Automatic annotation (TrEMBL):
This is Heat shock protein 40 like protein. PROSITE patterns: DNAJ_1, DNAJ_2, TPR. Residues 7-21 have a biased composition (Acidic residues). Residues 415-485 form the J domain. It holds the Pfam family TPR_19. It comes from the Eukaryota. Residues 1-21 are annotated as: Disordered. Keywords: Repeat, Stress response, TPR repeat. SMART domains: DnaJ, TPR. TPR repeats lie at residues 124-157, 238-271, 322-355.
């Protein structure tokens, strides 16, 4: 801290011929006030604070020296120093408080105002300045108390009477905001708090309440960002730590949330709430991790069970639960249980409508389920994704949109995959197996006991099954079918969409006979693996 000896005069003329002359310079409180005041007027507030501090310390030292003897500690025969001027020193404290206010040092300003009033109980401006600093910090009740004290000294101060009314309104607004938050109305509480924060921009308490409001509104990342500005100057604040832990928890970051809680518990070891939350968060993390390990080991049913257990711990944590639902969707898709996969992905999106991975997983399973309705829904999901994903991924999704639209067009004609009862990602072996089963069921030789109407319907299905197999067992035709070429044009390599005449000419009974003659081996040489179909495997990433 600066001392009188540190003071550097404004010009060389004031310095004298030696350091001894500088040390012997004694300034009155009014002179210190004048020097600091010049710096204040020049907006050098920190410089003003330094000079006010020098003046205060010099005056206090003078008082101590005077207490040691009638002449203030000087040798006999010298001129006695002036008596300690409490009112003048109070003014130095008051003006230093004003300088602190200008650099937002409200806590220091409050301390200086208290010291000023101790020296001069009638110093109304110091009392009112303290009230103003308290208000800036959001300590409205304390500010109101200071205003009442100041008005006892200066009862006719119209500005401060108006300020008292304004501060009373702030007290009521904070009460209304906290009530609204307790009633589950965080948006209303946040709106009221904004009005208060205009009056008290440095209030940590009001900002902490606003963090709670943002969390209640589901704005967890914004709440966490605001809490980060508060923690910088308050590492040892268990209440703030637990608030940040809840933000992290609701953002799905359980590991960091647990670390925050452990630090809060270290600071406040008697608080059982922290231990309970740590236990809860660890249970959620462990069951989620058990599901992850099971999935990696290809124990898909086990993964689904473990993630299901994690979902029962806290149904209110939508961010965490949406990831679990999406993980379950991936497991169901790998089991070819696409209806269940769609349901799980939809639950994930209900909890988090911005979850792009869930949209993609749902679209993939909808595509594999086939049918006009499912394919159109898949196309809508992919198109919605285009507004949400980064540029580098858009080309991939655009390709899936084109392929899905082609599948919609096919589905509106004849769905060969549906006729055989296979998914669009079925391989050649699955297609052959499905054809054999369906053809045997609807073969004319097995319809002898049926009515004429039933025989006619079975014959139509038998022909459609044969047509589906002829296309899906031929890689070239299947590829053209998957790309959206009209059914009548599958044999025409030069035809585009919507052109051509032909059609299938092979007799369905002959096709079945040839199939069985080859041991169920299909229509001829060289085809292995057949149509891959489908949208391809989407890589899995744990949420």
């Amino acid at each position: 801290m600066a001392t009188e000896g540190d003071y550097v005069p404004d010009s060389d003329d004031e310095m004298g011929d030696s350091s001894e002359d500088e040390i012997n310079v004694v300034l009155t409180p009014q002179e210190w006030k004048s020097k600091a005041g010049d710096l204040y007027k020049a907006k050098d507030y920190r410089g003003a604070i330094a000079v006010y501090t020098q003046g205060i310390e010099a005056c206090l030292q003078q008082r101590e020296e005077q207490g040691g003897g009638a002449n203030g500690g000087n040798g006999g025969g010298e001129k006695p120093e002036e008596a300690f001027d409490a009112v003048a020193v109070a003014a130095l404290y008051g003006n230093r408080a004003a300088s602190y206010v200008m650099i937002l040092g409200y806590e220091q300003a409050i301390l200086d105002c208290d010291r000023a009033v101790e020296l001069n109980p009638k110093f109304a401006n110091a009392i009112f300045r303290k009230a103003m600093a308290l208000k800036k910090l959001g300590r409205f009740k304390e500010s109101l108390s200071a205003l009442q004290q100041g008005l006892l000294v200066d009862p006719n101060n119209a500005d401060q009477i108006k300020e008292k009314t304004n501060t009373e309104m702030c007290v009521r607004k904070v009460h209304r905001a906290t009530d609204s938050l307790a009633q589950g109305k965080p948006a209303r509480a946040a709106s009221i708090l904004e009005e208060c924060l205009v009056k008290a921009p440095q209030s940590r308490e009001l900002k902490l309440i606003k963090v709670e409001c943002l969390m209640g509104m589901g704005k967890h990342e914004e709440a966490y960002a605001m809490s980060s500005t508060l923690i910088r100057n308050s590492q040892n604040n268990s209440k703030l730590l637990i608030t940040r832990a809840r933000c992290l928890y609701l953002m799905g970051n359980l590991d960091s949330a647990i670390k925050h809680l452990q630090e809060a518990a270290r600071q406040d070891p008697d608080n059982s709430e922290y231990r309970g939350l740590i236990k809860k968060y660890k249970l959620m993390e462990s069951t989620k991790e058990a599901g992850n390990k099971a999935f990696k080991a290809n124990d898909l049913e086990g993964a689904i069970r473990s993630w299901g257990e994690a979902l029962t711990v806290d149904k209110t944590n939508k961010s965490f639960n949406s990831k679990l639902y999406c993980n379950r969707a991936a497991a169901y898709a790998k089991l070819s249980k696409h209806q269940e996969a769609v349901a799980e992905a939809s639950r994930a999106l209900s909890d988090d409508p911005t979850y792009t991975k869930a949209y993609e997983r749902r679209a993939t399973s909808l595509y594999d389920m086939g049918g006009v309705e499912n394919l159109e829904a898949a196309c809508r999901d992919y198109e919605k994704l285009m507004d949400m994903i980064p540029d580098e991924k858009q080309r991939e999704i655009q390709g899936k949109i084109r392929k899905t639209k082609a599948a919609v067009k096919q589905a509106k004609r004849k769905d060969y995959y549906k006729l055989l009862g296979v998914s669009r990602s079925a391989d050649d072996a699955e297609i052959k197996k499905a054809y054999r089963k369906a053809a045997l069921k609807y073969h004319p030789d097995r319809q002898s006991s049926k009515t004429d109407e039933e025989k006619e319907q079975a014959g139509k299905v038998f022909r459609d099954i044969a047509e589906a197999y002829e296309v899906l067992s031929d890689p070239t035709k299947k590829g053209r079918y998957d790309s959206g070429v009209d059914l009548e044009d599958l044999d025409n390599p030069h035809a585009g969409h919507g052109q051509g005449h032909g059609g299938m000419e092979i007799d369905p009974s002959m096709l079945f006979h040839m199939f069985m003659q080859q041991g169920g081996g299909g229509m001829g040489g060289g085809r292995r693996g057949g149509g891959g179909g489908g949208m391809g495997g989407m890589p899995f990433h744990f949420g």
